[in-house]
Amino acid sequence: MSRPVDPMLRWRLQAAGVTGRFGAGLLAAAGALALGACQGVPGGPPPGQSPAVTAPATGGSDRSVGGQQGMAGQPGQGGQSGQPGQPGQLGQAGQPGQPRQPAPAQPPVAPERTIALLATRQLRCADPGPQAQDPQRASGAAFRDEAQWRAHLAGIDPGMRAALASFRIDFTAGESALLVRPGALPNLGYRIAIPQVRLPVTAGTLGVQLLVEPPPPHLLQAQVIAFPCVYLRLAGADYAGVAIDVERLPAP
């Protein structure tokens, strides 16, 4: 198969003074090259295979990878800090799936000292006090000298005052009196007990534990709201406040 020589190429050879037998040879070579471009150059890649892609120059040299992209253009590979397709890693303080360590429990504060409980007297308080309408609340009042005690006796019910006539407190010996209320109770059959014979003093606060025991089920009780109270005679008066802990026992 012959291919006519490009007229532009013939004109350029003639303009350059290439004529005669040498010019004819160049024209024949140009025709052969044009024919090879039409039929395919021997030694090229087989049909269906992509031509070679030359990678960008790195360090002054070229690298060709037939049918594959260069290293700089490979998909899915990035820097170490954020490779695509891999979840990021958090720091040690925020790793998912690890629960936060609970704070260590504070040890209980040891009491500074204790005060001996000398005597108790449980009464039906006619004066319920400011917290009496709330059955879950407890209240207390301390009397550290004779004047406070006499003022309290003058303000309570005469029946209660008569019941406390024999409940004497020696204030000159450092004793004190304490009135505690467990709160409102559903009937008059409840019994109040203090299990400790020595009451702890922690950070200046006197701790009093009250056990409230309901009456036996077989005993009928008038269903009337009651406000019982307990008077305590203590061997000391060196405390600033009172904290009352009420524990309601289940019915027997």
Describe the overall structure:
- There is one protein chain.
- The chain is of the alpha+beta class and 252 residues long.
- Among the domains are: 1-36, no CATH class; 113-248, no CATH class.
- It contains four helices and ten strands; from the N terminus they run ααββββααββββββ.
- It has helices spanning 7-15, 20-39, 146-155, 158-163, and strands at residues 52-54, 64-66, 113-124, 139-143, 176-181, 191-193, 198-202, 205-213, 228-234, 241-248.
- Strands 3, 4, 5, 6, 7, 8, 9 and 10 form an eight-stranded mixed β-sheet that branches. Strands 1-2 form a two-stranded antiparallel sheet.
- Strand 7 (198-202) and strand 8 form a beta hairpin.
- The chain starts with 6 loop residues before the first helix and ends with a strand.
- The model is unreliable at 34-45 and 49-73 (pLDDT under 50).
Question: How many E strands?
Answer: 10
Helix content estimate: 10-25%
Strand content: 15-25%
Characterize the biggest β-sheet. 8 strands, mixed
Q: What letter string, H or E per element, gives the SSE order?
A: HHEEEEHHEEEEEE
* Helix segment tally: 4
Structural class: alpha+beta
Distance between the termini: 121 Å
Q: What would the principal axes of the Cα set say about the shape? A: extended
Look at the structure and give the mean pLDDT.
Answer: 73
Rg, alpha carbons: 53 Å
Low-confidence parts lasting 5 or more residues at pLDDT below 50? 34-45, 49-73
Short description:
By secondary structure, the protein is an alpha+beta fold. The protein is 18% helix and 24% strand. The strands form two sheets. Strands 3, 4, 5, 6, 7, 8, 9 and 10 form an eight-stranded mixed sheet that branches. It has a two-stranded antiparallel sheet with strand order 1-2.
